[in-house]
Amino acid sequence: MFSTGIIHPMVVHFPIAIIIVGFLADLISLIYKKDSALPRMAFYLEVLGMLAVITAFSTGYFLTTPMEGEAGTMRDKHELFATMTLIAIIVATSYRGTIFYLKKEEAYHKYIAVSLFFIAFVFVSITGYLGGSLVFDYLIGI
């Protein structure tokens, strides 16, 4: 029988990878200012990362089962950081989309956008670590 609980572990790798690569592209674009493809690529990866985070968050929230004990405490931390990741990536993408749409070219907008993306990068990294801890330390999903 197919269990819907396996969908979450299947999709969580996408937001982690997309946000990390997007943030690195954004960071490199600050160093190599002449290359105009990197900021666009970072923006598209940020949008794709946001969609992936929404998908991963939804599958985790709606399709996984509650846990008790230490595993439940770890799941609560994982869920808290997943929520913070969701909020951070939505804020970062909304800000970047606004400056992209309004064609704001001032340097401080770029640094604010990269800083917001960095916050999402940190949160998705912590969320991924906590999720991995659930799997490897508490054998959830194995």
Question: How would you characterize the overall build of this protein?
Answer:
The structure is a single chain. With 142 residues, this protein is mainly alpha-helical. 80% of the residues lie in helices and 0% in strands. It is built from five helices and no strands. It has helices at residues 7-11, 13-31, 37-63, 69-101, 107-136. Helix 3 (37-63) runs antiparallel to helix 4. The longest helix has 33 residues, at 69-101. The protein is elongated and about 50 Å long. The two termini are 16 Å apart.
Kindly list the characteristics that best describe this protein:
142 residues, mainly alpha, 5 helices, elongated
How many strand units? 0
Q: Into which percentage range does the β-strand content fall? A: under 5%
Structural class label: mainly alpha
- Average pLDDT for all residues: 93
Order of H and E elements: HHHHH
Radius of gyration, in Å, reads 17 Å
* Count, helices: 5
Envelope shape: elongated
Low-confidence stretches: none
Query: How far apart lie the N and C ends?
Result: 16 Å
Q: Percentage of helical residues?
A: over 70%
The profile of the biggest β sheet is: none
Give the topology, please:
Blueprint: H1 7-11, H2 13-31, H3 37-63, H4 69-101, H5 107-136
Helix pairs in contact: 2-3, 2-5, 3-4, 4-5
Question: What's the short version?
Answer:
By secondary structure, the chain is mainly α. It has helices spanning 7-11, 13-31, 37-63, 69-101, 107-136.
